[in-house]
Amino acid sequence: MRRIKLTVAYDGTEFAGWQVQPGLPTIQGELERVFTEIEKHPVHVAGSGRTDAGVHALAQIAAVSITNPIPLYNLKKAVNRLLPKAIRITAVEEVPEAFHPRFDAKRKTYEYRIVRSEVCSPFDRRYVHHHPYPLNVENMIALAPHFEGEHDFSAFAASDDRDVHERSKVRTIHLSILKNQEDRLIYQVTGSGFLKHMVRNMVGTLLEAGKGNFTAQDLSDAFKNPKGKAGPTAPASGLLLVAVEYTAK
User: Rounded to 5 degrees, what are φ and ψ at 16?
Assistant: First the structure.
């Protein structure tokens, strides 16, 4: 049995997220369909995390166990030939059988893009959040680093089927920075892991700060209160999974 690590890029616009859902197109579902065709029996593809419907990825990490002896280069070509064009395998690597893309991940980095110009280019619209309204960008830039550190992010998480297990919602954010680049804002965040809708709610909170409705004290209060005030969930289109990091072996 071979364990194959996959680096996957995708345009999530037409998909109902990463995780398999009956009757809906998903990234995991398409990958499992292709590897099942290659292996001639049902195959499970594990991912580093569950991106939401409409969220994109530059480098999602997945893994699959197969018996087929096909060389890695040919495997990548075969899988990409069978996948829809919105999903592409950009790299393949043989890894130890125990490798798990989710449980072995140490850090993940997301990027969120906001276009502020009056008109959003049709070539950008699927990959940004268009917000052509006044914002105090200085407030947003100043608030972004306050997410850094270890905090309880319950107030920034949507309800999840994993909540029945009462798992901790404490996460460590290593980097949180907002950059103003011409007609757009680029938010970059690196953390130990992320909860459902967490990054989009963080972006919504930054936008509220830009509107003058949220302060650093409000953020501190939200960390202390699981039902505390947080910004609205920003649209999925602006969010991109940029990287997943693992400890070198």
Answer: -90, 35
CB–CB of 206/143 below 8 Å? yes
2-95 and 106-246 share one CATH topology? yes
Amino acid at 5: K
Question: Cβ distance 236 to 55 under 8 Å?
Answer: yes
- Helix, strand, coil shares, percent, the chain, to 5: 25, 30, 40
Residue of 240, 116, 227 lying closest to 182 (CA atoms):
116
Residues with Cβ within 8 Å of 91's Cβ and at least 6 positions away in sequence, in order, are 6, 7, 76
| Domain edges within the chain | 2-95, 106-246
Helix (H) or strand (E) holding 223: helix 216-224
Tell me: the pLDDT tens digits for 140-189?
999 999 999 999 999 999 877 665 556 889 999 999 999 999 899 999 99
Instruction: Identify the CA nearest to 224 among candidates 155, 141, 174.
Output: 155
Q: What is the CATH number of domain 2-95?
A: 3.30.70.580
Look up the pTM and report it: 0.94
Catalytic residues: 52
**In this structure, which topology does domain 106-246 adopt according to CATH?**
Alpha-Beta Plaits (3.30.70)
Size (the chain), residues? 249
Residue with tokens 């989710």: 102
Q: Name the nearest CA neighbour of 215 among 226, 230, 195, 201.
A: 230
177: which residues sit within 8 A by CB, 6+ positions away? 144, 145, 187, 188, 189
Strands 170-181 and 149-152: antiparallel
Written as six digits, the tokens of 81 are 């030939």
